[in-house]
């Protein structure tokens, strides 16, 4: 531990395809060592080809030192992941999908006597699926499973800034950190809320900065201009890991500090 009684957590935004998986593999182990990080969380919904995550990609991220993978609307793209979601405790999908969806929307990570409840939610504003209410859903999870676990980390996978900000305030004092994913562009509003919850509207992504949210920019621009359906390719230029590092008091569960992380990656061919 970096300080007694403090858990340092690295949380990475949406991992965009192979270049980002390689960047995670190359950069995370040294970050963990140099920064005294004990828990690593990443959003894996774009890890395979930029849309969805397959078993191979999930395993690559776990092997790179990621402890918990969250996800979002794209988690259902690769069918092989459905059974893997049922098997693998620490790959989670948004909790507020209707009952019967494969997998779970939360998990507990434990090291020694420190336990962390990680919850994944999906917003309902400007999102493709009509999921259940994320606000009531998180209240129920905290009521059922959070009573003896003060450390709570919430990935709010959502498009609308307002819905993410609202979730931050809804959970202030009840979660250690609430962060947004899905838009792939890092916001500069990281802060401590008065109840002790760290908050940021979007972590950004792990992926190519010379892109349109991780995809080759030329084909996305042509898509906007032509309005015709197009296949998008994952972009490779100027890859960076983006996310936050948050320090959490292990007895109270309150965050002490949150800072943005932006770590460039040089491919070692
Ligand atoms: Fe994403
Ligand atoms: Fe998404």
Q: Identify the quaternary structure here.
A: single chain
Low-confidence stretches: none
Bound molecules: fe (ii) ion
Q: How much helicity do the residues have? A: 10-25%
Q: What percent of residues are in strands?
A: 25-35%
Reported for the largest beta sheet, the result is: 7 strands, mixed
Calculate the terminal CA-CA distance, rounded to whole Å.
34 Å
Rg (C-alpha, Å): 17 Å
Mean pLDDT: 97
Judged by helices, strands and strand pairing, the structural class is alpha/beta
Q: Total helix count?
A: 6
Total strands? 13
> What's the helix-strand series?
EEHEHEHEEHEHEEEEHEE
Shape: globular
What does the model show?
The chain is globular. Strands 1, 2, 3, 4, 11, 12 and 13 form a seven-stranded mixed β-sheet that branches. Helices cover 25% and strands 28% of the residues. The chain contains six helices and 13 strands. The chain binds fe (ii) ion (FE2) (2 copies). One fe (ii) ion (FE2) is lined by residues 14, 45-46, 72, 182, 184.
Describe the structure using short key phrases:
single chain; alpha/beta; 7-stranded mixed β-sheet; binds fe (ii) ion; 269 residues; 6 helices
């Amino acid at each position: 531990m970096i300080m007694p009684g403090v858990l340092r957590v690295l949380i990475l935004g949406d991992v965009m395809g192979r270049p980002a998986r390689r960047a995670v593999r190359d950069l995370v182990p040294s970050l963990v060592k140099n920064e005294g990080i004990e828990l690593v969380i990443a959003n894996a919904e774009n890890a395979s080809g930029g849309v969805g995550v397959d078993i191979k990609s999930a395993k690559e991220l776990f092997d790179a030192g990621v402890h918990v993978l969250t996800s979002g609307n794209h988690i259902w793209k690769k069918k092989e992941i459905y059974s893997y979601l049922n098997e693998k405790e620490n790959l989670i999908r948004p909790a507020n999908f209707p009952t019967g969806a494969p997998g779970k929307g939360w998990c507990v990570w434990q090291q020694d006597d420190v336990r962390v409840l990680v919850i994944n939610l999906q917003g309902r504003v400007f999102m493709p699926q009509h999921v259940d209410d994320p606000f009531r859903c998180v209240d129920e999870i905290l009521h059922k499973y959070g009573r003896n676990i003060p450390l709570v980390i919430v990935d709010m996978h959502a498009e609308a800034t307002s819905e993410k900000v609202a979730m931050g305030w809804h959970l202030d004092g009840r979660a250690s950190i609430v962060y947004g994913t899905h838009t792939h562009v890092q916001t500069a509003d990281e802060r401590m809320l008065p109840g002790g919850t760290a908050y940021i509207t979007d972590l950004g992504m792990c992926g190519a900065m010379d892109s349109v949210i991780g995809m080759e920019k030329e084909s996305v621009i042509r898509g906007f201009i032509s309005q015709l359906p197009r296949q998008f390719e994952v972009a490779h230029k100027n890859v960076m890991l983006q996310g936050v590092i948050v320090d959490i008091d292990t007895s109270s569960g309150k965050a002490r500090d949150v800072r943005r992380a932006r770590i460039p990656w040089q491919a070692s061919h």
